[in-house]
Amino acid sequence: MGAQWKAKGKAQVADAKGKLFGKLVKEITVAARGGADPASNARLRLVVEQARKVSMPKDTLERAIKKGSGTGADAVNYERVIYEGFAPHQVAVMVECLTDNVNRTAPEMRVLFRKGQLGTSGSVAWDFNHVGIIEAEPANGDADPELAAIEAGAQDFEAGEEEGNTTFWTEPTDLDLVSRALPTHGFTVLSAKLGYKPKNPVNPANLSAEQLEEVESFLAAIDGNDDVQNVYVSLAG
């Protein structure tokens, strides 16, 4: 599971695309605060590229940019909030939300964390590194992830979430630089964002099948909340 937990199962694919669009719209809206032109707003450029790769309709994308930049009639202001705590069996979790109403989101998180433990700010953040996360696929059969990581300036790499893909880890400030460099070293960037990587992930082998199922059920409930953007969990593999 590594840095970011994702729900499993083919039956969830259809719902996942709609949820992905919703998350990307929020990310675009927030990024557009720094300017509506992707050419001069690196953060916006990265998320717009990701939206295009998953075939987000052009009018949806443009409407999100207008919302965030304040140029649209329905401008909206999302706030990024991090909730920290533990899933069952003391598995550390960081939940990243984008919300237009913290007074709604906070009590919802308290309810969702009842089967785990909701902590205070900093209670588990110390056990995660703030990093840039780039998911990429080889553009050709000769692409070497180790060489690409070195040449592009990534800090580390590992097998990606999908077979054949690679996840590159960067310093937060190097995310855009490495994203721009990877294509020249044989990799097509699928997504690039800031996130969290656990320092000391729990080995799933140390949990029973029943315990692991409880953790998965807890994470699925968290991820199902509309305000949740990303769930980072300290569980290896």
From TrEMBL:
Protein localization: Cytoplasm
Single biological process term from Gene Ontology: regulation of DNA-templated transcription
Superkingdom of origin: Bacteria
Pfam families: TACO1_YebC_N, Transcrip_reg
Limits of the TACO1/YebC-like second and third domain: 78-233
Entry protein name: Probable transcriptional regulatory protein HNP48_000957
Molecular function terms from GO: DNA binding
GO cellular component: cytosol
PANTHER family: TRANSLATIONAL ACTIVATOR OF CYTOCHROME C OXIDASE 1 (PTHR12532)
Major place of residence: cytoplasm
Family: Belongs to the TACO1 family.
Keywords: Cytoplasm, DNA-binding, Transcription, Transcription regulation
Domain TACO1/YebC-like N-terminal positions: 5-70
Family annotation (InterPro entries): Integrase-like_N, TACO1_YebC-like_2nd/3rd_dom, TACO1_YebC_N, Transcrip_reg_TACO1-like, Transcrip_reg_TACO1-like_dom3, YebC-like
